[in-house]
Amino acid sequence: MRRRQVAPRDSWRARVEEQGLLFHHIAGEAGAYWAEGTYYEFTAAEVDTIEAATDELHARCLDAVEHVIENRRYAELGIPELAIPLIERTWDDEPPSIYGRMDLAFGDGVPKLLEYNADTPTSLLEGAVIQWTWLDDCFPALDQFNSIHDRLIAGWTELAPHLGSVLHFGLVEDVEDAMTIAYLRDTAEQAGIKTVELAMEDLGWDDASRSLVDLDNKPIESLFKLYPWEGLVVDDWAPLLSRITTRWLEPAWKMVLSNKAILPILWELFPGHPNLLPAARELSKLPDQTRWVKKPIFGREGNNVTIVAPGVSVGTEGPYGAEGHVFQQYATLGEFDGMRPVVGSWVIAGEAAGVGIREASSYVTNNTARFVPHVIAG
C-alpha cells in the first residue's frame, strides 16, 4: 500500500458536482473532503486479502448476531425490550439487506475490524462513482477494487420482488444523507424499482392498516431509512414498531451489528481471529493495557473516543457515552505523508464489493477526514 500524488484534473470540482458530490470541500484537513491529486496504490494481493477478510468478517458477524439472539444478550448492547421482538422476527424472516461498510485498519498489511457500520453508512457515492470516474480519467489502464455500483443494481434487482409496488426512501435533512439517498434511489430505479423520497418527520401512521403512510396517505410497503435504529427505538415511533407491517431496509437485526458492543462478543466467540482486535467491556480484560481505544457503543464520526498507546494520548468530545463504552486493542493505521488511512470495505447484498479510503492527520477518523481514491497496480 502506497500513497501517491497525481496532477488534479481540469475542472474537477464541476466534474464531481455533476456526479452528485455536493461537498467536495468542508472545514478541516486543509478544507478538502475529496482528495483530488492524491491516491492510494494497492497490489492485487493486498486487494485479495481485503476482499477475503471482508467476506470472512461478514460471515462471523452474522454468527455473532445469531449468538446474541439465541442467548438474548440484548442488555449488553443497550437494546430496549420493545425492540427485541422486532429483531427476532426480522432475523427469522430473513428480510432483505442491501449494504454495510466495515472500517478496517490495514497498517500492518493484515485487515483488522475497527467497527461495522451495518445500518446507515455514508460515503457510498464517493466509493461507487466518484473514485471510479477519477480512475477512468487519470489511470484508464489500471483497475480498482470497486464493483459497488453494479452490485447495488444487482442487489436491488434481486430484492425487487419483495419490496412491493413502491420503495420509499426516508432521511433526515442533511447534505451527506441527501446525497447518499439520491444515489441509492438512482441505483434502485436502474433496477426497475419505483421510488419515492420523504423526510422521516413526514412519516404518518394509519391505525386501521397498521401501516406507515406517506404525505399522500398511501401505505409505505417498504422503507429504506437513513436513520439509525438506535434512534428509532427511543423516539416517538418506538411504541408502534412491533405493530408496523412495513418492510424495513436495513432490517431491525442490523442494530445488533451497528452497535460497537458487538466487538467484545465477536472477540469472545472468535478469540485470536487474525482479522479481529481484542475487545472487552472492561479495560482490565484486554491482553495489552498499554495500547487501547475506548469507544461509546452508539458513537459516530469519531466523537467521544479515547486512544492511549505509547506516544499517543488522544480524546475527542461529543454527545455520546451515556449508553456505555467498549475497549478495543489499539491498532496502527499506518502513516503516509503524515496521514492515517482507514479502509472502508463495502458489503453489498452480503458480499465484499469494493473499498473507499478516508484519511486524517489525527489518530481519530472523524467527519472532516478526506476521501481518497485508489488504484490497483502490481
Describe it for me?
By secondary structure, the protein is an alpha+beta fold. The protein is built from nine helices and 19 strands. The chain has helices at 12-18, 44-71, 84-93, 124-138, 148-159, 175-190, 229-232, 254-257, 262-269, and strands at 2-5, 38-42, 99-105, 112-117, 167-171, 195-199, 204-206, 211-213, 222-226, 247-249, 279-280, 292-296, 306-309, 312-315, 325-329, 340-348, 351-360, 370-372, 374-376. The strands form five sheets. The chain has a five-stranded antiparallel β-sheet. The chain has a five-stranded antiparallel β-sheet with strand order 11-15-12-13-14. A hairpin with a 2-residue loop joins strand 16 (340-348) and strand 17. The chain is globular. 43% of the residues are buried.
- List low-pLDDT spans: none
Order the strands across the largest sheet as they lie in space. Answer: 4-3-16-17-18
Major β-sheet profile? 5 strands, antiparallel
- The CA-CA distance between the termini, in Å, is 11 Å
The helix fraction, in percent, is: 25-40%
Element string (H = helix, E = strand): EHEHHEEHHEHEEEEHEHHEEEEEEEEE
Q: Rounded to an integer, what's the Rg over CA atoms?
A: 20 Å
SSE-based structural type: alpha+beta
How many strand units? 19
Our estimate of the beta-strand percent is 15-25%
Mean pLDDT: 94
Please tally the helical runs, counting DSSP H or I stretches of 4 or more residues.
Answer: 9
